[in-house]
Amino acid sequence: AVSGLHLGLVAWLFFTLLRWNFSLSYRLTLAVDIRKLAALITMVPVIGYGLITGFQLSSQRAVVMILVFLCSMVIGRERDVWSSLCLAALIILVLNADSLFTASFQLSFVAVAGILWLSPVIFALLSKSASAMGKFEKYRFLGAVLTYFIGLIAVTTAATVMIMPLIAHHFHRFSILSLPANLTVVPIIGLWV
Fold it and tell me: CA 144, CA 188: separation in Å to the nearest integer?
């Protein structure tokens, strides 16, 4: 299944390569904001990848969310992620109002809202605990790896906690092993990807 992770990876890869390639031109960096230009051009492969995969509902949602984020970057509003999330939901609902009642729409947007709302709090708590346990000032690489894993744990925990009630509602059960399983598997898969 094509998920937001795949489309996000395509967008990140193209944006990074385009920005790096544009930064090699001294004249271009003086003439335009290369981040905005890279974001604008990245929209084409994101839409293309969405079309190649059949543009199913899950990939439509991911394409719209990524395009809204890229547009917000082009107009200089990428810090306003809540408005971007709400605009993506509004666009999807305008295209198909019935999607509001689907489990996939609700789980997607509640998970992203949970990541935006809860993960900074969880990250701050875990970072404070990790810094109290050991000092990594001498070992920059270990500190970076620890920060990456703390970020993955914070994101996974926030998303899982927020979607628990919806999973229980839609599927009439919730596995108590999902959080430990996701905390184990997601960092490994995230690092692999």
Answer: 16
Query: DSSP code of 149?
Result: H
Distance CA 114, CA 118 (A): 5
Rounded Cα distance between 156 and 186, Å, is 7
Classify 24 as helix, strand or coil.
coil
Residues 159/99, Cβ–Cβ less than 8 Å:
no
How confident is the model over 146-188, as pLDDT tens digits? Answer: 888 888 889 889 988 999 999 999 998 888 888 788 778 776 7
pLDDT single digits (tens) 46-58: 999 989 988 777 7
Within the chain, how many helices (H) and strands (E) appear?
8, 0
What is the C-alpha separation between 95 and 63, in angstroms, rounded? 13
